[in-house]
Amino acid sequence: MSEEPTVAGGAIAALEVQPAWERRHVLDLDDFTRPEIEIVMETTDAMKEVLGREVPRVPALRGKTIVTLFYEASTRTRASFELAAKALGADVINVAASDSSVQKGESLYDTVRTLQAVGAQILVIRHGSSGAPYLVARRVEMNVVNGGDGWHAHPTQGLLDLYTMRSHLGDLRGKRVVIIGDIAHSRVARSNLWGLATLGAEIVVCAPPTLLPYGMRPDGSPPEEPLALPPVIVETDLDRALEGADVVMALRLQLERMASGLLPSLREYARLYQVNEERLARARPGALVMHPGPMNEGVEISSAVARSLQSAIEEQVTNGVAVRMAVLYLLARGKP
Amino acid sequence: MFPVPGVGGRGMNGRTVLTAEDVRRAVGRIAHEIVERNRNLDDVVLVGMRTRGVPLASRLAAAIQEFESAQGRVPVGALDIGLYRDDIPAMELRPQIRPTELPTDIHGKRVVLVDDVLCTGRSIRAALDALIDFGRPASIQLAVLVDRGHRELPIRPDYVGKNIPTASNEDVQVLLEETDGRDEVVVIPALSEVEGQVEGER
Amino acid sequence: MSESLTIRGGRVIDPVSGLDAVADVLIADGRIAAVSPDAGKEAREAVDATGLVVCPGFVDTHTHLREPGFEHKETIASGTLAAARGGFTTVCAMPNTEPAADTAAIIEFVLRTAQAEGAIRVLPIGCVTKGRQGRELAELAELAAAGAVAFSDDGSPVTDAHLMRRALEYASMLRPPAGGLGLPVIDHCEEPALSADGVMHEGWVAVRLGLQGVPAAAEESMVARDIALAGLTGAQVHIAHVSTVGSVELIRRAKSAGLPVTAEVTPHHLCLSHEAVLLGPAETPGGLAFDTNAKVSPPLRTSEDAAACLAGLLDGAIDCIATDHAPHAVEDKLCEFDQAAMGISGLETALGLCLSLVHDGRVELPALIEKLTIGPVRALGLDRHIESIGTLSVGAPGDVTLIDPEAEWTVEPERFASKGRNTPLAGRTLRGRVVATVYEGQVVFDDR
Fold it and tell me: What is the mean predicted confidence (pLDDT) over B45-68?
């Protein structure tokens, strides 16, 4: 660290000509511009500093009410949002799908209208159905943050992954990021694809064809137009995929995929697609190892790799709180 | 388009009230006053408020070191008050915050808070809150390059480079070598609304 | 006493006779009495149809009227009024009601209610299997005797190939007195193991939205099966709502091989594509609509699929246009995409949407009218039940639709007669509308 704090942005920074933050919702990264991502990253730096304090709490969102509405069980993401909101001094209400009104069959629409009526300003929603946050955003005044919807998107996970990669690799332009596993059913993968594409990374996805989305062909044929997702290099062979990788991201394998005939066995999957030390040797020395969690150690990733010095998996969790603070702060304090 | 800062943007069409030489002298004088008032500099910390308070704090530290060479350099920190402000939405197109960097634990220290322009006192109020979140200083003093009046809170500077009475619709802009390419303080008359939003720092 | 109605000076299009000329249509005692340039000269009062198109009332082979059981979605009264507004004078009511139309009692109930409360003619379709469960055949002969004109488990396919074979064989003996083959079995072709939990077409939009897709093969594999069974049994299979390139090609080949296969296509499968799910009717936060009003089974597919359906319609592979009018309550659609009900409320937009094909120069107006009138009649052999239906022949039912093909209007679902406001066309401007509908000589809809 430098002896003296620097003035931000290297002197005559173009701070004042950068575009404004006019976003009312964070639903996915597909419509984030590079400057918008930069704003989040920069704000996250400040939030990391707050989290490093003895008392990690600031009054930025004092008097604001943030609701987390989770239709899917999720300890990590919900806790991460709650910590983020509290660190900013906001009041937090957690509503889980097991709670009474939701269980009594109240519709999503009625539930969110109620939460708005009780005075929430920001709604964080996690839902098993793709698009649920979009339905909500269209019909409420609250700022909506997508905390993960179906197979579709998980933008704050994408942002925290980008933040983690950037803090190790700097500019991601031309960096080779390999995402391994169930791309077809992974909202984490999708949001990462959009963010990485915007930042100019070279993206490689690696999975058996049964875990690749429709239209993502492993045979090197050009994807059909119009593109459903950003262009990527598709590999079914892990060794080839890992060649020269700067980042190796293993995705969680949902164990129920076996039942639906997408994979013959865990054993075979692990043999073909597990990120282990031997395989990782093909990546660039010191390549960053990531996983959105929770991990099935011994399936998609070996315990040794998950705990190695190259692993940023724990750091992802810490960065998650900071990124969510940044997102909540920007939504709450952005131009009304 | 918004004015491009630095090169001909910030400070344009303004009436010069302090020249580079005036700024240099004001910094020197404040440094002397700080030394005078804080006999033992051991427990003094200079904390500049982002953005232009930070280079000012560094200059004060350098000046102090110059005439108190035996004592070594006074530590300098940077304070961001973004997360403590109560007036952002109305003013900024883009809420910008950066990390606070304090070189030392401020508990029990004599903190000199440094800012470029003092006006309503609201930024200082936020800065006090922010500082106290980091510990309990023995005292907090306030140094500003320019005091332009219009106080809305009971806040009084301990060190002032220059008092510049202004009308409320005027703007005082401090330009510094480190951030703007030159040292100068200008008064901008009848501030336009757009500029007010972009530049709205005090 | 002889009640009569004269429609004067319109461009009369009657696909059966090939008539396409300015003429008067005279209706007496509920039947067509005359069609000729001066037939209405004598009439003291007449409907002035100058500048309008006059054609036989439209016939829909595929309508969900929801009654009994789902009266909050639609009733026979509201559904038939919606049909009249859409220019339809005959609709075939699908049996997926509650209880399902798997007994003569339900068929009779539908007929009786339509008689009492309906604006137009309702021809009921009976279930293929008891409770639409796909396990045991319904009492098809009783259903036929009660008035069923065809059989279908629509909403679901007849998944069990063996049962489908037996249904076809059994139905083949149920010949209407007017002759022809037995009553057709209409199949909703969708291989459930392939469509699984799919909620839209498997294609780039589904990938973009993270929604589970229904591959075209889910439909095509069952169309192929049904064609094979038509060949095996010699009984007529009618393929409901064809939606893919592959299905059209399979049906085309089956027809050229002389197999008793007929097919229908909906206006939305002809004119819309899966992008409707993505884009929705208006701008939306995040730019993705997830428009539940475009969720339908079979799903809206690609524009290539739509083009193939149109080509099939024009070359005869597909016999007719059917609305698959599937009204739903607001709450059935105002929910998560996965949970939303499938279906489009289509009766009132069918003509306007199909006319876009005419305005784009892809179909001639008489050909379109044929596919809305005599096409469906012949596909299901409905003229064996109602003589000369779908035509303006002398003695035919006095069912006439008046169209202004040029009039522009904006789709406002809240003004629908149907209780189902579920349409992906909300807010869209369509060119061409129904001006009036005459059923058995009575004006049942008049918007002149």
Answer: 93
> Does residue C216 belong to the interface with chain A, where contact is any CB pair within 8 Å?
no
Query: For residue C376, is it within any domain?
Result: yes
Amino acid present at B119: C
Q: How many domains does chain C have?
A: 1
What values do phi and psi take at A98, rounded to 5? -75, -10
- Per residue in B85-102, pLDDT (tens digit) is 876 554 456 668 899 999
Sequence-separated (6 or more) residues with CB below 8 Å from residue C168 = C185, C229, C230, C232, C233, C235, C236, C237
Verify whether the Cβ–Cβ distance A42 to B94 is below 8 Å: no
Instruction: Extract the tokens encoding C160.
Output: 């069990």
Question: pLDDT confidence of B154, banded at 50, 70, 90?
Answer: very high
Residue C427, domain member (yes or no): no
CB contact (8 A) between residue A228 and residue C208: yes
Q: Which residues of B touch A88 (CB under 8 A)?
A: 83
CATH number at residue C117: 3.20.20.140
Chain-centroid distance of CA C175 in Å reads 23
State how far the Cα of B67 lies from the Cα of B61, in Å rounded to an integer: 10
Residue B28 lies in a domain: yes
Residue B10 lies in a domain: no
CB–CB contact A150 C210 (8 Å): yes
C291: distance to nearest CA of chain A, Å?
A: 9
Select from A237, A214, A82, A67 the least CA-distant residue to A140.
A67
Do both A218 and A118 map to the same domain? no
Four-residue CA torsion sign, C404, C409, C415, C420: positive
Domain that residue C126 falls in: 57-392
Query: Could you tell me if residue C8 is inside a domain?
Result: no
Q: How many CB atoms lie within 10 A of CB B13?
A: 11
Whether C153 is catalytic is no
Q: Read out DSSP for A288-322?
A: EEE--S---BTTTB-HHHHTSTTB-HHHHHHHHHH
Nearest to A224 among C204, C210, C339 (CB): C204
pLDDT digits (tens, 9 = 90+) for C229-250: 999 999 999 999 999 999 999 9
Q: What's the domain range around A227? A: 155-312
ipTM of the complex in this document: 0.93
On whether residue C446 sits in a domain, the answer given is: no
User: Cα separation of A162 and A41, whole Å?
Assistant: 8
